[in-house]
Amino acid sequence: MDNGQEHTNGIKAPSCDLDPASATVIAEICQRFDNDKHRMLDILRAVQDRYRWIAPATMNKIAEATDLTRIEVEGVASFYSFLSLTPKGRVTIRLCDDIVDRYSDLKGVTAAFEEVLGIKVGETSADGAFSLEVTPCIGMCDQAPAAMINDIVLTGLTPETARSAAEALQSGTAPETLVSDRFNHLSPHERALRQVDNNIRHAGECLLGPVPEDAGLVKALSMTPVQIVNQVEASGLRGCGGAGFTTGRKWRFAASETAEKHFIICNADEGEPGTFKDRVLLTERPHLLIEGMTIAARAVGAKEGILYLRGEYVYLRELIEQVLEDRRSRGLLGSDIMGKKGFTFDIRLQLGAGAYICGEEGALISSCEGLSGEPKTRPPFPVNRGYLGYPTVVNNVETFCHAARILDKGAAWFHDMGTDGSHGTKLFSVSGDCLNPGIYELPYGHTMWELLEIVGGEDATAVQVGGPSGAMIARDSFHRKLTFDDLATGGAIIVFNGERNILEIVEYYMSFFVHESCGYCTPCRVGNVFLQKAIQKFQKGLANPEDIDYLKDLSGTIIETSRCGLGMTSPNPILSTLQNFPLVYSAVVKPSQDGIRATFDIQSAIESARKIAKRRSYIFDRDFSQ
């Protein structure tokens, strides 16, 4: 292919010109997905997996097959972090760079890989065998440090185990052999469990205790769609991803839309650092999830569904595909489900490719449509006009699982658990400085103190509730309750003891938002860079009292003018710590001698934003017209 350069996996890597054999392979990949531009992410992932990069000539061929321009293809290929426009090694090692991993000796783990492989983070070995990278949270915070090695996950790493893994890989050991020398003989479920410990610390009544198979679906088929919606709405079930919108109302809105098609999408892209509850449900309750999606389809009249699985959970792909195929073979998906004439519904698995923003439902829908994961302007809302312009219900894994249990046990059963306005149980993903990190299924209404006692985190001085987009609270707020109307969370509970530096945590979270911004709107793209640099100023002891007002004012501007939820919540690490840990800031500020706040170079400040977002600013770029 092209110049005949051979890549490390023995497959020639395309660059300038495609040889006939490679052109045939690319054409076959496109044909596998019906040359459908809406399956662009699937096409690009398949090419990436085969050739380890998306070459220019490849993009030309894909554009030709899908009736798009080269620029449109490259726009998608350049958006997702797991796709690359330059060659990657045969083995790509992605070290999780979450704050919990950093506090669990990620530095030592990184040094071990670098020393053995002879490369630094961000480099590919000269022979093309290895690439070493860092990546944001991969959903393994309860067993950090963790890493992805191609599609294999390693957890609970130490410098010693990292060294052993690197030496084995360097000697030619396949990544899956690091998990088990019988890996190919294990079932998909066994493979998943060998890689990741689900750490279920407390199984509650709804989801992680005994669950009869498809009992909810059986009852749903004896009900009318309106009765199903009424049951879900009467239960008080609210979306479990954090926003908390009433699930029954969402289904009712979608069902009331007159349209040729309706769609059901499961958001399994839990990219919020510190959140890993859906990972457990996908492993232990995949049938319950599909059952819930099928019930939703019955309720709103959908015939097609999409399960959007975050790229970091690729290790669960085979398990989910096996579950889908099993249900098709037993008449639980497909035509005339369970003998119900005319009830047709099936689901396809859509794998993401490393983009936090795709957890936002509009960006997720864009990604499913084969586009960059940029949020959509609202209104219209997805229930009115979502995937491909049709009414679409988007709920997360936990919500669909709850819906299936509600149809089985009844609305009153679910409604009676929890508290007013927060009914049922909640899966809490607990990590950080506690004795027993893992998953806890508890009724809504527990105080933070109670939860900390359960998990062994009584010496906490700070808790991040809801991940970076949530709030960091201090000990004087530990009496507050974990409910939608008090301490709302999609599930993440990150515990920090008194040894941790609050400003260091805030700076990390701001760097995360800078990296994960889609770059569409200036307030988010540029404003978060300014916030991060301002926090760095506090860390260096260079801030003055006026900088606190600057943080508040800029945060307000970003929240009010950003297009989607990322920008509307990205200042939260700063705002919540300013409110709950004011002494942390006041202790490091120094009054300016002349009362004038120090200036900074705006061009330098936004340079990192330019590189990350691959966009330039009409307002701040002097040479934009050149």
Automatic annotation (TrEMBL):
Cofactor requirement: FMN
Boundaries of every NADH-ubiquinone oxidoreductase 51kDa subunit iron-sulphur binding domain copy: 503-548
SMART domains, alphabetized: NADH_4Fe-4S
Pfam families, alphabetized: 2Fe-2S_thioredx (PF01257), Complex1_51K (PF01512), NADH_4Fe-4S (PF10589)
InterPro entries in the cross-refs: NADH-UbQ_OxRdtase_51kDa_CS, Nuo51_FMN-bd, Nuo51_FMN-bd_sf, NuoE_dom, NuoE_N, Nuop51_4Fe4S-bd, Nuop51_4Fe4S-bd_sf, Thioredoxin-like_sf
CDD domains: TRX_Fd_NuoE
Designated name of the protein: NAD(P)-dependent nickel-iron dehydrogenase flavin-containing subunit
Gene source species: Roseibium denhamense
